[in-house]
Amino acid sequence: MQDNQDYLLNMIKITNDLLDQLSFEASISPRKRKNYNFHKEDSDCLQRMLNALEPGTYIRPHKHINPGKREVFILLKGIIAVLEFDDRGNITDHIILDRDKGNYATEITLGAWHTALSLEKGSVYYEVKDGPYDAAKDKIFANWSPEESSENAPLYLKNIINKII
């Protein structure tokens, strides 16, 4: 795979080879996901990245506030569900991004609790998000959801999938 910094010198190209390599890296990752940044620095005002997700990955529901951040998911490959929740953890909206069904992208409601999950191996989406990125302040995790490393996370993820499929 090309180095993340190669784009500084060349046109950014998103190819099947890049998506396949990223999906492979996600499949062997303990977290079952892998991202690939196109933005130069965490301080960039526009964050652009690829996110490869494999079934079973758990992205703990979270929201971006202080400041709120717009976040757009554009499906490139596979099938991904994107969900929004209320303050008690009830699903308020969702979309299953699936090119065969004509569902290509979504933008998260500003300040909404949300998550994304993979429903098919080799799923990859292009994400555009307001910056800057500061890991200490970027997101607030929902206290009604299990932590990523929790033994309850797989069951929580399974329950979410059962509610939307």
Instruction: Evaluate the radius of gyration.
Output: 15 Å
Structural class: alpha+beta
Describe the biggest sheet? Answer: 5 strands, antiparallel
Fourth-tier CATH superfamily name: Jelly Rolls
- Named CATH architecture: Sandwich
The total number of structural domains is: 1
Give the strand order, joined by hyphens, for the main sheet: 1-2-9-4-7
Look up the CATH topology. Answer: Jelly Rolls
Shape: globular
List keywords for this structure.
single chain; alpha+beta; Jelly Rolls; 2 helices; 34% strand
Summarize the structure.
This protein has 2 helices and 10 strands.
Structure description:
The chain is an alpha+beta fold and 165 residues long. The chain has a single domain, classed as Sandwich (Jelly Rolls), CATH 2.60.120. 15% of the residues lie in helices and 34% in strands. The chain is built from two helices and ten strands, in the order αββββββββββα. Strands 1-2-9-4-7 form a five-stranded antiparallel β-sheet. The protein has a three-stranded antiparallel β-sheet with strand order 6-5-8, with helices on one face. β1 and β2 form a beta hairpin. The N and C termini lie far apart (34 Å). The mean pLDDT is 92.
